Amino acid sequence: MERRFKGIAASPGIEIGKAVFRKSPKPRFTYQFLLNKSDVKKELDRFKRAVDQVKKEIKDVKSGLGHNPPLKEIKPILDTYLIVLSDPIFFKATLRRIKEEKINAEWALMKTVEDIEGIFGKIEDEYIKQRVQDIRYIAKKIFGFLGSTTNTTISSSGNILIADELSPTEATKLPTKQIGAFVTETGGLTSHTAIVAQALKLPAVVGVKGISQEVKNGDMVIVDGQRGIVIVNPNPDTLRQYKQRQRHYSLLCKELEHYINITAHTLDGKILRVMANVELFEEIPSVLEMGAEGIGLFRTEFFYLQHNELPNEEALYNYFKKVVKAIYPYPVTFRTLDFGGDKLSSYLHSGKEINPALGLRAIRLCLTQRDIFCTQLRAILRASQHGNVRLLFPLISSLEEIQETKQILISLKEGLEKEACKPFTPIPLGIMVEVPSAVAIIDLLVQEVDFISIGTNDLIQYALAIDRNNEQVAYLYQPLHPAVLRMLKQITDTAHQRGITVSVCGEMARDPIYTPLLVGLGIDEISLNVQNIPIIKKLICSLSFKEAQVLVKELLTFKTVQEIKRFYLQHIKFWFKNLEELFSQDEFENLEEKYGKTIEESCLHE
Length: 606
Ligand code: PEP
Ligand code: MG
Hints:
Layout: E1 3-6, E2 8-11, E3 14-22, H1 37-64, H2 75-86, H3 91-101, H4 105-121, H5 126-130, H6 132-145, E4 160-163, H7 168-172, E5 181-184, H8 192-200, E6 204-206, H9 211-214, E7 220-224, E8 229-232, H10 236-260, E9 273-278, H11 284-289, E10 295-299, H12 301-305, H13 313-327, E11 332-335, H14 362-368, H15 370-384, E12 389-393, H16 399-420, E13 429-433, H17 436-440, H18 442-445, E14 451-454, H19 456-464, H20 482-498, E15 501-504, H21 507-510, H22 515-521, E16 525-528, H23 533-541, H24 545-555, H25 561-575, H26 586-595, H27 599-605
The chain binds phosphoenolpyruvate (PEP) and magnesium ion.
Magnesium ion binds next to helix 19.
């Protein structure tokens, strides 16, 4: 009987084949109290030795990756492991426990991991939260060398690996000639396992709870890495449908290569610059490989989050300079610190807030903790002299905020020019429009800046009063809400009247569904995660700007989300004929459910 499981679409592509199992063993050990000093010493040595063995293994994997371009993205992950292995809250904390509590290495390590899990459990940012998986994985490796687990191997000869979990190093060691896709019970979209799957170009679905109990070795399995679906023992109809989809998908991938090297323009010649959202320097090679024309949003806070203490100006300058040079001649848009809200750091003592999303975050925090802000701005200004830099300020909600920020910037620039005894090249300044008050005074704000970047993630959250991280109200998070459409239109038109460019860098830019809308609104630039860049470029190239404009005009006449969605969907299904493989987003599936007739069916009837 056919059974379907829903997980998280971690790496695109479709694979059909036979299941092969890999269950990782649970570490087994007991509590031991150490009676004398020599036992404690033995235990300390045993732990240190195991850590060294893990380090060696990771280094071996790293050097084994060679210069294989897709795999080089894995290197930073392995470097992170090496850092964790030496991190005081991991390494020294365990040694201290062995010594002070006189307990065996396994027990001490288990307690360290529990402590770290407790800290991570309180973090809301999904990316950071996922890093706890790395800690667990490293601990597991150490348990292995302490003799508390045995290694597992893949025995039977299927090509769809089903595992309770799969660490990035294990994923790199997969026999890729045999394994064509994998499914895991744990992991999230931003887990390192997902990143490795994308680098290896293996379709993957992660976070499929209970899957290992439901599948037997040799069962027929379809992995739909695009939609996050796993189908076990498909019926003949499903199988036929998926074989066809697989063919479409591989044709589409071939076709997409063409779009990597071109500037996206509509059929009637309107150019839309497609750029990348980046969090860390390590992503830059893929930014260039996927055809981004620069970085439209560099979330600078992630560099800070990698450190246990505030990085100083020199460290920031060197980092930013590295980014600027690597992406040159394309521009990089550095967004100043967007800390607070869901992104927290232990060294920023902003106090506990009942409602952090409405609290001291982003520009507010920077204007309050001036020294941190000035250090960052000085570093960016200095780095800007090495290439093409734009500055972007998050969460601007009033004219005063941007005016005050500009004053600070002017005086920092003057100071730097004096120090360097030469004038600094001016850099374009922009604001993120992500608060409704900024939309209401957009006519005033556009007079202060050189470009506008719309942060739709926050704009929708604040406009509709929907917490973007709260599952319970996720159904109300509606990019096609008439209020959102009106805001987008108002921002774009006002900025264009002033002659400045408008970019969109929230998730709406990443989702193919919204491409016609953004084109029709007349957006000049979009910035999104690298994976979707070729497909978004293709969609832009398949649209007529004039028709998209007419569509937006009509959408603005509707009063409800339902009406807008229905009308919008009817239109885009004709425009995106045969591109059904794109529509992996849950949003679209929800729409399909609501409107009965699926996009896919409509396309097939064409
Ligand atoms: C946004 O709010 O749309 C945005 C791009 O910023 P972030 O997701 O980092 O808050
Ligand atoms: Mg934001």
